[in-house]
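Researcher: Please predict.
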Amino acid sequence: MNRKTLALPAIAGLLAPLLAACGTETGGAAGGSDIVVGTTDRFAASPDSPAPFDPAYAYDTGVWNVLRQTVQTLTRIPRGGGRPVPDAASQCQFTDSASESYRCLLREDLVFSDGKPVTARDVTYSIERVLAIKSDNGAAGLLSNIDTVEAKGYREVVFHLKTPDATFPYKLATPVAGIVSSDKYGATELREGFQVDGSGPYTMKPEVRDGRLVSVAFTRNPHYKGDVKVRNDGVELRSFADADAMGEALEAGDIDMMTRTLEPEQIKELDARPREGVKLTEVPGLEIRYLAFNTEAPPVKDKAVRQAVAALVDRDRIAQNVYGPTATPLYSLIPSTIVAHSNSFFNKYGEPSRDKAAGILRDAGVHTPVELTLHYTTDHYGAATAKEFAALRDQLNESGLFDVTVQGVEWSAFRPAQKRGDYAAYGLGWFPDFPDPDNYVAPFLDADNFLNTPYANAEARERLIPASRREADRAAAAPSFKRLQDIVADDVPVLPLWQGKQYVASRDTLTGVEWALNTSSDLQLWELGRGNA
């Protein structure tokens, strides 16, 4: 059967209608796993990142997709999107009108996969260790508004927040708030290697070669109690070096589904010339790509340089020539498919203009051409990233105002270097932790942010972000988000480039494909099945 399907879950809420370093963790492959899913996400341990799968450290979509299968959270985003629902908890709610106190009651007889009971103290332990470790990877920032968390008896947990935060239930649904056991995770130290243990839908067994995770065998956790319905007994997640190798495995029948990340050419080919027994499914997505700047680095410290880049970049050319129908230009950190979006960059800079860029640099007394290196990761977002950065280089150099070079670096080295501030300008992608405008702003502008950036704007941090979080009716936060987007367009600590669509290719015998990847690119392997499963 040859077919292309479009998955359109009922997305509620704010969406517009829309390593083991010592080599001790070896383990078998999936063995008898019925379903095999391919990914181009690469998982490696290194001296800079020895504990890639510890919830207190992990802050990457690919790693979170492993954690979501194994580590349970108090709440979770439901199947079709919308407001969080209880998972490890039986009920959760704010206990005050100001959104400063949040109470959860754990499910009865909840246990970890090894049979040990999960108690309220395990929840407080897990949250407190994240805040104590405070990894520079940025995930702890999601929980930084917690003042105290207390266990009341065996099942009750109460979070007291420093300031009101209507988005807090969403944050509790992310893996950084995953519940772990003190038997396996130290209070002040990260757990090195690739093994993950929790109370989630699956247990896992990693296969590691030369410090890299090559596959994970997920087996249904018989002790799991939560909101998820598991539709299979086991899934293997297999990592591939690139999308071509993953595609060959699908055609050969070695895997049942290929997910992150299909290349644009693969999508065009599968759409134009479908393969027998293979279907291509489009899934609504909220991914964005952007350039970010180390605002203390000499080449870009002057705001005028960053503004000139913003005035020159032709997003339409990049989207059309590199990504085709899989990307659309983006003029704000907040995607156009989320309420509160504003085309702030287009409003300020208009169409790409050399004259405008030259005027900005001339008025600021900046000598041209400005020498600048753009860094990107070679193995994290797909092969098209290299073409994208070649296009950015050419656009800037054609103006005569810049002398740009590009340099690609493997993700295992790229991310630590970026966090250290080694790069003046670099490219990254963002898959939201939860579908709220806050999660496209705070991770870039707030303290303890994902980028570890030196950029700080007092109005954003001290007034606008807190004001937006006070609004339980999220539409009422729109004025704050409008001003935040305008600040980003003026200061340009980050330059949005495009937002993407998501595609999954699978054997047509597989069911649940349309639910297996949600708008935030969360992999939900429990949705997959065979036939009428």
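Model: The mean pLDDT is 92.
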